[in-house]
Amino acid sequence: MEKFCAGWWSLLGLCGLLLPMMAQAGREMPTLSDMKMCADAECSHPILIARARQDYYPQDCRFIPLRQGQLVYVYAMLKDRGSLFWAGSVQGSYYGEQEARLGHFPNDLVEETHALMPAEVEVKTTKWDFYCY
Fold it and tell me: In three state form, how does the secondary structure of the chain look?
């Protein structure tokens, strides 16, 4: 659990809220990739900011819904067999009072608006990358 809180989830202050819930509910899902590219070894710094080109309503809990025009903070880019997916967070009024939603999304649904840091660090994915709650 400690390593889980060292990543980009901790930046959003969710570890104190999510860990008790995860102990009670949730499930591990199949991995999309074994590796990801990040700005740092903990994937705690955003790589870029992107804007959703269209609405996206996923059928899988590993993914986040997107609304056209919504900003997405990208923290990781999956590699190898999962290279079509990025991981990030969305915020804003679309989700009401909720601070942020985290998960994966198809990278072709967004366009880069601001490059922030290069994704030069290869990081092994963990079960927490694909955990559903």
Answer: CCCHHHCHHHHCCCHHHHHHHHHHCCEECCCCCCEEEECCCCCCCCCEEEEECCCECCCCCCECCECCCCEEEEEEEECHHHCCEEEEEECCHHHCCCCCEEEEEEHHHEEEEEECCCCCEEEECCHHHHEEC
Using the predicted structure, report yes or no on whether residue 3 has a pLDDT greater than 70: no
Model confidence at 96, in pLDDT bands (50, 70, 90)? low
Residue 110 carries which side chain, given as an amino acid letter? V
- Percent of the chain predicted with pLDDT > 90: 62
Domain boundaries 4-132, corresponding CATH code = 2.30.30.40
